[in-house]
Design brief:
single chain; about 120 residues; mainly beta; seven-stranded mixed beta sheet; 11 strands
């Protein structure tokens, strides 16, 4: 059974950092692209970043480039999202999702498996 479990969320002050983890089980990341998405209260879900199955290619939302970094540890079957210089507007539930393809398509509908989400709150 394909499963994704996010962790690492929490409360952080503006300017702080968090590292989110997305642990995959029931499948290997060698054949799936993984995306991070977020949804703030009252807003639509938006794409944050995506990494190819090999970990060699990453894409980021333009507004997040330079602050967020996505990486993959294939040996641990885990994907990470390092978030730096966090802002209150980064507050959201963060989800990871798997797309059965080597590369990120850029379409949310192509991500068929989702984790339960982890809450990130940026506040002083």
């Amino acid at each position: 059974q394909l499963q994704l479990v996010e962790s690492g969320g929490g409360l952080v002050q503006p300017g702080g950092s968090l590292r989110l983890s997305c642990a995959a089980s029931g499948f290997t990341l060698d054949y799936y692209a993984i995306g991070w998405f977020r949804q703030a209260p009252g807003k639509e879900r938006e794409g944050v970043s995506c990494i190819s199955s090999s970990g060699g290619s990453t894409n980021y939302a333009d507004s997040l480039k330079g602050r967020f970094t996505m990486s993959m540890n294939n040996a641990k079957n885990t994907v990470y999202l390092q978030m730096n210089s966090l802002k209150p507007e980064d507050t959201a539930v963060y989800y990871c999702a798997a797309e059965p393809d080597y590369y990120c398509s850029g379409y949310v509908a192509d991500f068929g498996s989702w984790g339960q989400g982890t809450q990130v709150t940026v506040s002083s």
